[in-house]
Amino acid sequence: MSDAGGRERLLVAARNLFPRSSYAEVGVAQLLEEAGVKAPTLYYHFGDKEGLFVAHVEQELGSLGAHLRLLAQTHNSLQAALADLASALAEFTAVDLEGALEAGRKMRKPSHQERIQESYVRNVFEPIASLLQSAMDRGEMRREPAGRLVVLFQSGALQLCSGRSDLAGRAPSDWWAETFVRAFAAR
């Protein structure tokens, strides 16, 4: 019952099923069949479907967060860093960010709600906020509430970059980064 392979198979099943359907649409039977395990394995490792979903979101957002932090640190140009961050957000399909946050708000267990929220803040919000705050500290951007800027940047990146392939011959992530930097440039 405690085999670690079952835990990993369940996480792989979650990785395969949750991005294609909402949390509510994926059933326990589907997860068990996809993982090739029995219900006691799910309950032993995760407690229930909700626990598996939370572990899946934490794992995938952890990977995204490491990638975003690396991208934010590898550029001398704010615009280039933001273009790469926008691209990474748009290409990230392991978890529907908005769907995961919405599902998290509806979780039965407050600890699960908190874990999803904390994972989002630590792995998505903070890397972007840190980059933008540094740009404000250097005088590249005008002073604005960092949280507001993160929400604007992320929503624009997700909307533009995942829905458009070309804007005036440019990649959507490049266009969005330039537009964002120009809109909030220090005056």
Q: How would you concisely characterize the structure shown here?
A:
The protein is an all-alpha fold. It has helices at 4-17, 28-35, 39-46, 49-73, 78-91, 97-105, 110-137, 146-163, 172-183. It has two domains: 1-47, Homeodomain-like (Arc Repressor Mutant, subunit A, Orthogonal Bundle); 63-183, Tetracycline Repressor, domain 2.
Give a written overview of the molecule.
The protein has 187 residues and is mostly helical. The chain contains nine helices and no strands. It has two domains: 47 residues, Arc Repressor Mutant, subunit A, CATH 1.10.10; 121 residues, Tetracycline Repressor, domain 2 (Orthogonal Bundle), CATH 1.10.357. The protein is elongated. The mean pLDDT is 92.
Provide mean pLDDT, rounded: 92
Instruction: Supply the number of structural domains.
Output: 2
What is the radius of gyration computed over CA atoms, rounded to a whole number of angstroms?
Answer: 19 Å
Which fold name corresponds to the CATH topology of the largest domain? Tetracycline Repressor, domain 2
Q: What is the level-2 CATH architecture name of the largest domain? A: Orthogonal Bundle
Helix content: over 70%
What oligomeric assembly is this protein in? single chain
What is the CA-CA span between the terminal residues? 62 Å
